[in-house]
Amino acid sequence: MVSSIVAISGPSGSGKTLLATTLRAQLQSQRPINSVTVLAEDAYYHDQSHLEPDARARVNFDHPAALDHGLLLEHLRQLRQGNSVQVPVYDYQAHVRSERSYRQAPADVVLVEGILLLSNPQLRLEFDFSLFIETPLDLCLTRRIARDTRERGRSEESVQRQFRDSVEPMYHQHIAPSAAHAHLVVRGSDDHEHNARLLGSHILARLNPNSQGGEEI
């Protein structure tokens, strides 16, 4: 059975994936934790194969409607009940859901990372703890350019255009306000290992009520 489901949210390029990976490594060496897994909200983008390629590129992927939060919600509930789920694999270059998926087994701690997790009231009910990474948008853009040109075959110009047209407006409309729902807010410009230790102490405190509690910010 899953002991804890933890949300790691914040703007695109804030360092969510790096923090989740670092935290997973730290928690796996702790007791009473035996297993930790990471789920990416990005895997749950709606399939856009019904659209022509040019139209797919114009989809606002930073709006909550672009994500299949219903499927993510169902998967979190199944994992909490001790059941495995088939997680979709998304093709970011073609903007379609791949025919492949992978089997995710339940774990003691499930870390879920994504930009819009805390914008959804139903998802928020599933999180035992949530963190928001507050990061300056200029730093987010720099990181996003580096990631998308390297990993997703994008041009720097297209990344900048998308950031200006949808990423930044959706940040102000949906993502920044969702920080109010987080249990803990950290700075994305801080050392990620420090943030992982900070979040890890809170998770361990919740799993072990007899502990001394989480580290102060």
What structural category arises from helix and sheet content?
Answer: alpha/beta
Head-to-tail CA distance between termini? 30 Å
By oligomeric state, this entry counts as single chain
Shape descriptor reads: globular
Number of H/I helices: 7
The residue ranges in which pLDDT falls below 50 over 5 or more consecutive positions are 212-217
- The top-level CATH class is Alpha Beta
Mean pLDDT: 90
Q: CATH superfamily, please?
A: P-loop containing nucleotide triphosphate hydrolases
The domain tally reads 1
Rounded to the nearest angstrom, the radius of gyration is 17 Å
Order of strands in the sheet with most strands: 2-5-1-6-7
Give the topology, please.
Elements: E1 4-9, H1 16-27, E2 36-40, H2 53-57, H3 69-80, E3 85-91, E4 96-104, E5 109-114, H4 121-126, E6 129-134, H5 137-151, H6 156-178, E7 184-187, H7 192-207
Parallel strand pairs: 1-5, 1-6, 2-5, 6-7
Antiparallel strand pairs: 3-4
Helix pairs in contact: 1-7, 5-6
Tell me what you see in this structure.
- The protein is 41% helix and 20% strand.
- The protein has 217 residues and is of the alpha/beta class.
- The protein has a single domain, classed as P-loop containing nucleotide triphosphate hydrolases (Rossmann fold, 3-Layer(aba) Sandwich), CATH 3.40.50.
- A five-stranded parallel beta sheet has the order 2-5-1-6-7, with helices on one face. Strands 3-4 form a two-stranded antiparallel sheet.
- The longest helix has 23 residues, at 156-178.
